[in-house]
């Protein structure tokens, strides 16, 4: 996705800053409680902007919270792009994605709480991680790395499994997240048609450092 050009004057910069503050406030609320019923006044106070500023950027709270979810999912996707850029094996990309997601529950807790609470409705969105995952699945199928099935169905399976892993990381902090992610990654690769021995090895390849 192309990056938007930076605002060209002081007025546009202030508008962008205000909108960004509102989106950040909405992300924080989603991560902390998931309560989208909070008042606009509460959102504006958290964002440290005037109440009237809200309607300069959003028509409703629904629109704001949807923007906050899209913002979080796009950050999620960019994080994957940054850390997995050197991997060209589709199977390794899938496995590394699961394992990085488990670690991001600690390194990016706000982001992952948003994914936990609102990710299901965005498994097939056209932004964020979904479009990147669909691309990798299609490459894997075209190359013969994965069994040829409907890519959309495969994406549903991957997205549902990933969200289950994220839920596990927060609901059961006593469970070793790295081990769970490795085992799930191996299972998913086998589901996609990767031979068992190969899936076992690929799921355990070294990961890039998230720091």
Automatic annotation (TrEMBL):
Keywords recorded for this protein, A-Z: DNA-binding, Transcription, Transcription regulation
Domain HTH tetR-type: 16-76
Start-end of DNA-binding region: 39-58
InterPro entries given in the database record: Homeodomain-like_sf, HTH-type_TetR-like_transc_reg, HTH_TetR, Tet_transcr_reg_TetR-rel_C_sf, TetR_C_40
UniProt cross-references to Gene3D superfamilies, sorted A to Z: Tetracycline Repressor, domain 2 (1.10.357.10)
Name under which the protein is recorded: TetR/AcrR family transcriptional regulator
Organism: Streptomyces litmocidini
């Amino acid at each position: 996705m192309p990056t938007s050009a930076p605002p060209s004057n002081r007025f546009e910069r202030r508008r962008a800053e205000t909108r960004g503050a509102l989106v950040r406030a909405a992300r924080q609320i989603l991560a902390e409680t998931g309560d989208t019923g909070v008042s606009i006044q509460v959102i504006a106070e958290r964002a440290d902007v005037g109440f009237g500023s809200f309607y300069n950027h959003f028509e409703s709270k629904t629109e704001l919270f949807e923007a906050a979810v899209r913002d979080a999912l796009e950050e999620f996707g960019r994080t994957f792009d940054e850390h997995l850029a050197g991997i060209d094996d589709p199977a390794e990309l899938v496995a590394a994605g699961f394992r990085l997601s488990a670690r991001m529950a600690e390194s990016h807790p706000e982001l992952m709480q948003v994914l936990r609470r609102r990710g299901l409705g965005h498994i097939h969105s056209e932004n964020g991680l979904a479009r990147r995952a669909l691309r990798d699945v299609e490459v894997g199928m075209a190359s013969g790395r994965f069994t040829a099935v409907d890519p959309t169905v495969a994406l549903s399976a991957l997205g549902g499994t990933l969200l289950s892993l994220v839920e596990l990381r927060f609901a059961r902090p006593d469970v070793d997240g790295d081990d769970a992610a490795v085992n799930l990654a191996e299972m998913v690769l086998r589901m996609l048609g990767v031979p068992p021995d190969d899936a076992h090895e690929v799921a355990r390849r070294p990961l890039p450092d998230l720091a």
